[in-house]
Amino acid sequence: MTIALALEQLLNGIQLGVMLFLMAAGLTLIFGVMGLINLAHGSLYMVGAFACATVAAWTGSFWLGLIASLACAAAAGAIVELAVIRRLYDRDHLDQVLATFALILIFSEGTRWLFGDFPLYLDIPPLLQGIVNLPGDASYPVYRLAIIAVGALIALGLYLLIGKTRLGMRIRAGESDREMIGALGVDIRTLYTLVFALGSALAGLAGALVGALQSVQVGMGEPVLILAFVVIVIGGIGSIKGALYGALLVGVTDTLGRFLLPQLLALFVDPSQAGMIGGAMASMLIYVVMAVILAVKPRGLFPPAHA
Amino acid sequence: MLTRENTVNLVLALLLLVAPLAANAFGQPFYVTLATRIAILALAALGLNLALGLGGLVSFGHAAFFGIGGYAAGILSSHALSYEPMIFGLPGTVQMPVIWIVAVVASGLVALAIGAISLRTSGVYFIMITLAFAQMVYYFAISWPAYGGEDGLSIMVRNQFPGANTMKPLSFFLVCYLVLLAGIGLFALIRASRFGAALQAARQNETRVATVGIHPYRIRLTGFVISAMITALAGALYADLNRFVSPSMLSWHMSGELIVLIILGGTGRLFGPLAGAALYVAFEFALGGLTERWQFFLGLILLGVVLFARGGLLGLLAGKAKHG
Prior knowledge:
heterodimer; A: mainly alpha; 3% strand; Branched-chain amino acid transport system permease protein (chain B); cell membrane (chain B); membrane (chain B); branched-chain amino acid transmembrane transporter activity (chain B); LivM-like (chain B)
């Protein structure tokens, strides 16, 4: 094991963490403001990836595809909010789970209808192809570094949006007391649609960015969705800060676990056994981490002050 | 007492018995298999209904217990057929009653561990944590190659039940049907018992339950474990029905489907899971015959039920539940 390899794995972990943050930020924002648990968030991730792949194939430009992914995911989110989600705010979580589970079925099968069963492929744009050399003989793909940079920018942008703007002030007010800000004359229904569309756009962006690393296919959003749930449960549901730390923790733990555990076990048992047991243990690692954190802090690392 | 709900329940139970008998008489074993599927899914959902309907515990991870039951059947029978001893030199078995006991005990232990941690939380946290634990079991099954990993495990010959030839569709159906009836009876007993009253009270008002000196946590944990055991028993039967067990039994889609069955039938109702399972399998069969994309329409129907028809099928047939 070399330092270079470890550094690459660490960066992979951060890159996964950044993707999870884009998903988790939307989920946690929607839960914090509207009190809604949205299983269909993974479907919006898928919508973003498909929009990007389709537009990139038509126009030959990844960048137009990226814009399309934001627009399509936000539009899909807004439509879903207007048609279905807004009827669910006053319902219990069970109804929300079921209705959004139904949305997953509709989105997945609908996409399969439109695009067929075969995955689409999305190329990394020429500008971001290639690798960079890092200190200690390590090298790393430019595109993955760019994803990390985008994630950092989004985190900063969200911090400024929520903390420093008028819209952000309304969002925070909506989290604390929705009746009161309605009484103060804020159009709460439009605000909810906006927040939902914003969360959807972030999920769509994540889908488009990952689409260039993996294939774009139906069901791609579901593993990510569940990891994003783990992230927000660890971070504290409703907390964007918690989502950021939780995402990085989950991303790095998962990646390094898969890398290190088999090697660690190889010190004790023979290598083939170590690979098998280590792999199985690594795939469970983040859930163990989650269980430990919840056993100590049942409301996550950064529980929101209210609620 | 023959209330409207009891009449509907009786009709449902009889229909599920008569339909496969008739199908068998007319030489249509496929419909017998369909009815077996209904009975098994109903049993799985019945288990979940104990936690979800009575205790208000929205577990989004019951596929874990369903799958553990399935793997109990698959692993025990594969060892029995290969004559390889398992850990501690124990032999495998093809006897269903033994398999069921193993399935129930194993899932009970896992449920005790998962429940002990998950029940410290509530609401959305509980939903997501049960989901996450089920995913943990799912990924473990996928990455553990000894029992087929991602490919799953075939059960060469359906396991045996004393006095019945389980390879005959009708005999296997009757075994499943009797287990389902026993399950429904157990559910009714629990619901009417002091424990059941406490479990329902803990859902309705936790503070009051604590005030009268009952520990809601222990009541819920007990309910959660029993619920998991029933679902695991259904899982063992399901593996025998398909003669195949794979990680898909553990997937979160399965957890979602189990909740869907309950809601389609009517939450907390004694026969809700059976009504829901019958409706679900009927949809699957009817829509699946029309279009490959039947899940799209299932999604639409489900959305309609959640938004506009919250009582489910039993709510429609038998009116509102007497007490919430």
